Amino acid sequence: MAHLRGSDENLASTTPGTPAGEVETLSMVDGSPIVKRPYSLADGRELIYYDDADTLLPPERAADERLLDPRPPVAEMRQDALTGEWISIAAARNNRVFLPPANLDPLAPQAPDNPSEVPSLYDVAVFENRSPSFGPELLGAGEAPVRDDHSIGLGKSRASIGRCEVVCFSPEREGSFGSLPTSRARTVIEAWADRTAVLQAMPGIEQVFPFENRGEQVGVTLHHPHGQIYSYPFVSPRTQRLIASIDDYGPTLFADILASEQAGDRMIVQGEHWSAFVPFAARWPIEVHILPHRQVPDLASTTPAERDELAVLYPRVLRAFDGLYDTPTPYIAGWHQAPVSSHRDDIRLMLQITSPRRAADRLKFLAGSESAMGAFIGDVRPEVTAHNLRESFAAHE
């Protein structure tokens, strides 16, 4: 039987709402540390504060004194016999908060009129989702992981084990990753890297996916600047397609793509450690990929220097998105990382940022060909998008 909370047994003896572990220095920025402070929420969920290197916050954090209902049971995962893919049936998510008024922001620091998820003022905060798509149970002793089950069957189901976390970029109620100052962006990147390492070590986790959705047009239900991290008990379908491409092309696929793009006319910016470009076969009207210049499988494997540059380059790319039109551009930004157990020497960490916005007042909707058959049809030439983004990037430093 799957067991609860995996590597978090250290929280079992901790009173809910109190410190749950040792304070840890993660990285030094300009001689000052980014600090990790583990706590727990009133129902036992993990809460971690990440303090900026230049933080003005005191070290102490308030306890979570709410009275909370028990967490919903772990969701059920069902296999689609037509594709072999696993679908998580997480019905408890249907009741999650939807575009609440500003005074009831569940990601803002708690206030007398706002019993939010975060008890104290913070720089960056990460906590377990109350109604997750995967988890909070993990693989139990003696249970076979999903990767060992290659058969197709009718009515096959499993517990939807894993972990889903919320990453709050700022205590402010409006904004996005692109609006963060460099110091705060650097803290978020450090949190992503730390959580990637921790989550990958949990029993049954096969792939870790940090991402941000921005804008109601892509399904955002909270305007607060935040992202999420999904820890899957399987390798995602998109990554399985990538593995097939690498098996066909060879292990230099990412290196060759990067060299080709750096020599072409779809580059947005090339730094010392990262390059941002519009891909040759972009699916979306606005699509940018950001690749590191060396082979690294995930964020946890990046160096402090690589994270420093990313904290400057990535927000500038997002500001270029917003500079294309008079209103903010909706987007999905996802960190594609190598699976935990395979292809870590040939799948390279990649950030993919996509937007359905094809004009100032028009969106690309996934209609028949895209939704039913997965056959995308591009509305804008990638070279035109790259030209427009380069001009916007230069104008919005």
Automatic annotation (TrEMBL):
Residues 117-235 form the Galactose-1-phosphate uridyl transferase N-terminal domain. Residues 252-390 form the Galactose-1-phosphate uridyl transferase C-terminal domain. It comes from the Bacteria. The keyword Lipid metabolism does not apply. Keywords: Carbohydrate metabolism, Galactose metabolism, Metal-binding, Nucleotidyltransferase, Transferase, Zinc. Residues 1-24 are annotated as: Disordered. It catalyses: alpha-D-galactose 1-phosphate + UDP-alpha-D-glucose = alpha-D-glucose 1-phosphate + UDP-alpha-D-galactose. Its EC number is 2.7.7.12. It is an enzyme of class 2 (transferase). One of its GO terms (molecular function) is UDP-glucose:hexose-1-phosphate uridylyltransferase activity. It holds the Pfam family GalP_UDP_transf. Its cofactor is Zn(2+). Pathway: Carbohydrate metabolism; galactose metabolism. Belongs to the galactose-1-phosphate uridylyltransferase type 1 family. This is Galactose-1-phosphate uridylyltransferase. The lineage of its organism: Bacteria, Bacillati, Actinomycetota, Actinomycetes, Micrococcales.
